[in-house]
Amino acid sequence: MPKTTTGPKAFVARHAETRIRAALADTRIVAIVGPRQSGKTTLARRIAEDDGHPFVTLDDDQFRRFAQDDPVAFMRGHRTLVIDEIQRAPGLILELKKAVDQDPQPGRFLITGSVDLFKGSISPDSLAGRVETVELLPFSQAEIAGAGPSRFLDRAFAGDFPAVAATGATEGLIDRVLSGGFPPALSRPSPARRATWLRAYARSLADRDVSDIATVEKRDELSRLIDHAAVSAGRLLNMSSLGSHLGVDSKTVDRWLVLLEQMFLVRRIRAWHRSGLKRLVKTPKLQFLDSGLLAALQRVGPADIARDRQTLGSLLECFVHAEIAKAAALAEEPTALAHYRDKDKVEVDLVLERPPGAIVGIEVKAGATARPEQFKGLTRLSEAVGDRFACGILLHDGDRVQRTSPGLFAVPFRMLWEA
Fold first, then answer.
1. How far, in Å, CA of 262 to CA of 256, rounded?
2. pLDDT tens digit string along 107-121?
């Protein structure tokens, strides 16, 4: 079972803090964005206290009304300020722009938002050249363990894995997958209590938080969409099918999915393709950003997996996607995520791409033994990519790294955060 230190007085060091502080040293405004309850407020408050900056949260009714009614007066007199949940008063963005244009010193404002601030009502041009955005997702496994940032992505793109190496089995894999990374969920004493909190969290997003970014008349249907999306996680996205379950058209489903993406609940994973390859499927997949939340919505617990380990499959893929997304958010090199599927239904769960076009394929398997046929998708991807193929990795529940052929590796899950 993974060690957690998420009690009420504990502070789990976040890998994003180094990047945030570096940005504050040379950028006028730094924005921390991520889902609610991922730790943004805790980290922003810590930075404010350490650096002696005023801190206000717009979750406070009085501060929020003041910011909404009179943003000019709200900002008056503040040379530096940390503003939590700024999406609740988007009118402040213009005042921030005016303030940093008048005084362009770096590190003036640190803001947080529980929506992707510049993909919604806030124009991405509003702070162009003035802001650096840092994504803070729920705890990674390395953060939970108190370890430094993983080097897995850099090693993958370098093909830097040994031909054979014993690592030991991945400790507490099922518990890690079912727990996810949300701090309040991890502080709960049992899987049942975690699941209860996570389901309430999803309902709260649909019932309350969505109103910060859009007007949604049918909130019950939006909540039901979250449930249906959980059933479809890891599969090709079929918006017509989702719409038929909800009694709405595919355009409405698309609009609602955009809102869920803005709130960091789900992501559409684009299909990897390239010109000249006509047999590739171009439909995206739908994936959640926290495996604990997905497990809670799917009503899957330890006993269910003990009875039928196949129920672990989609949750494991979500877990790996979440770990990769957290690492990619902090990587020096931009890392794009996609999936591969061709007309023969040969698939690769994740395709990672870095400039100037290097490709890594990742396949996720719940078993402890890597079998030759499980590398079919990675081999097909390698043939399609050619010299751009850095390596293919089959993640499994075994206890050793093994190179099965040039550029193809079987790697235990623990290497995601211990590499």
1. 10
2. 999 999 999 877 665
